[in-house]
Amino acid sequence: xxxxxxxxxxxxxxxxxxxxxxxxxxxxxxxxxxxxxxxxxxxxxxxxxxxxxxxxxxxxxxxxxxxxxxxxxxxxxxxxxxxxxxxxxxxxxxxxxxxxxxxxxxxxxxxxxxxxxxxxxxxxxxxxxxxxxxxxxxxxxxxxxxxxxxxxxxxxxxxxxxxxxxxxxxxxxxxxxxxxxxxxxxxxxxxxxxxxxxxxxxxxxxxxxxxxxxxxxxxxxxxxxxxxxxxxxxxxxxxxxxxxxxxxxxxxxxxxxxxxxxxxxxxxxxxxxxxxxxxxxxxxxxxxxxxxxxxxxxxxxxxxxxxxxxxxxxxxxxxxxxxxxxxxxxxxxxxxxxxxxxxxxxxxxxxxxxxxxxxxxxxxxxxxxxxxxxxxxxxxxxxxxxxxxxxxx
Length: 393
Ligand SMILES: Cc1cc2nc3c(=O)[nH]c(=O)nc-3n(C[C@H](O)[C@H](O)[C@H](O)COP(=O)(O)OP(=O)(O)OC[C@H]3O[C@@H](n4cnc5c(N)ncnc54)[C@H](O)[C@@H]3O)c2cc1C
Prior knowledge:
Helix 4 (about 70-85) runs antiparallel to helix 5, helix 5 (about 85-105) runs antiparallel to helix 7 and helix 7 (about 240-275) runs parallel beside helix 9. This protein has helices spanning about 10-30, 30-40, 45-50, 70-85, 85-105, 105-120, 240-275, 290-315, 325-345, 360-365, 370, 375-390, and strands at about 125, 145, 150-160, 170-175, 185-190, 200, 200-205, 220-230, 280, 285. By secondary structure, it is an alpha+beta fold.
């Protein structure tokens, strides 16, 4: 999006959000259900996002990005998810990788990667999980052994969103066996040709078939003596990977909260329209108090979820710690979204179960937000730990 240099940040933000809202209405909403049904990658939407500069929203202008804040990012994610949740997933892992480079990258790594990421020339994936390590991130087994000027990587990574189309994969590996385990972990910037399924000892599996979150590929990576230059060690120092990846997860949690608000808002809008058109027992169903109360509860919870989200991202924008707030926003917004979508299905009656209406897709997309970026059980652990620290006797 061309930015007028005389505009204030608020004006740029509002203009961008308005543009994204129109882009969603014109390009995403009309095709979402068909692409979801075919599990088809929406190349045209990704190209449109690139043209709008969405892959560089928070990247500083010095590296070719828009240099906007996290509140703007959250609102953009909300708008895109209103049309189709998968589209917000194209930004999530990419944005976490940009954050890792901006926060921890060496000057050479920033100059090498950020301009191409900001323009969307390459997109990024983010890899923590393995077949036997999800919530317990420190149980990962993928190893990187330094031999001369490169690391030899061996192991299996699981659940890589955007893994096939990405040109950069920020990957958590073990560079040493240590006690505590996290001190032996590092992040490698793994480069590969976008779209390639085999590349010099790196095999990308076929897409994992999923309940929802379709169109965006989720894959498995097998590293077999794959070589990564030592220059691609994030920040140039071993042993900081766990802390680095966890800092990015805070942002991933805000992304999930924002997409949950977007999906829930869509379910609400579909429901309030439907409830004023569908008649039963001589009146529109919105006039049955049971339905009207559902709408009241749905709207109230969505508003509360949005406030929690904005509180978390505003704190992060001010440079304050926000793991408690991001965890609360993710927990509440994702559970709210799941409840709202179920209520939307009830309001739609049989039509809620039909693929002719969007509720069926929202119903399949919503549960991911309970699991993604740390399950809600893990959010409760994080929230409780922080509360107990804060209120220690
Ligand atoms: C569609 C999709 C896309 C994904 N994309 C990515 C990605 O791009 N990159 C990536 O790295 N990962 C990704 N993931 C992985 C995701 O982050 C993990 O699935 C998630 O962290 C949970 O890990 P797990 O599946 O191994 O479950 P487990 O860790 O095996 O958990 C199983 C159950 O046990 C509970 N549990 C575990 N430990 C505790 C505890 N201490 N206290 C209470 N309950 C506990 C969990 O809450 C859960 O209910 C993706 C997952 C999905 C489904």
